[in-house]
Prior knowledge:
Helix content: 25-40%
Strand content: 15-25%
Radius of gyration: 21 Å
Order of helices and strands: EHEEEHEHEHEHEEH
Number of helices: 6
Distance between the termini: 34 Å
Structural class: alpha/beta
Shape: elongated
Bound molecules: S-adenosylmethionine
Oligomer: single chain
Amino acid sequence: MKIDAISVFPEMFDSLNQSLIGKAIENELIEFQTLNPRQFTSDVHKTVDDSPYGGGAGMVMKPEPLGKALDSLVDSDSVIIFPSPAGKLFDQATAKDLATRQHLVFVCGRYEGIDQRVVEYASTKAETLELSIGDYVINGGEMASVVMIEAISRLIPGVIGNSDSLIEESHEDGLVEYPSYTKPASWNGLDVPEVLLSGNHAEIDKWRKLQQIDRTKKNRPDLI
Ligand code: SAM
């Protein structure tokens, strides 16, 4: 899969070079590149933002540099993603769908966001999504893109060494995952639940399913 990120802070994507996604990039399972829209400006200050029409606080990202950046990257097989707190909620189902695509382009907003005509323009070129990572506001689209890229990339075959670990995860079956434990069996007066030491796999499966239901009811009643 090819992933491009259009951003005025490309260094913020350096964390993708770590761990499993870093290995996938090294092994060419994922081709990842950033593109700074400032390179498509023509003024001496390389301006990418301007004041909002209609007034209001803050600055808005100008359409021309972002439009030119998109022109240089996108073809009709691309999916263009605008991280935005006003977007549709990004979830595991969306991650699964995007993991099957050939080319993703993330367009990172800063300041008060991006001139909405860039989203309209993008949608004339390729499938375009506005996606939110949650009901809160962060300063820019870079970290939101990193979150989505990590969630998507780990679903690409070969990225996670043991693909079984993707099967029993939170949000795979509409519930959150059961709690996990490792050695030692007793720590600081706290014991691992006995059933997990029993070797009885039918009982362990039953216990884990009940834990999933209890944990989902407690932490995410909206999923029940
Ligand atoms: N004024 C915008 C609003 O209220 O909807 C928020 C702009 S925010 C300060 C700047 C950029 O951060 C956005 O354009 C977007 O790229 C990114 N961003 C902030 N919160 C986000 C979220 N929850 N999900 C995805 N992207 C987010």
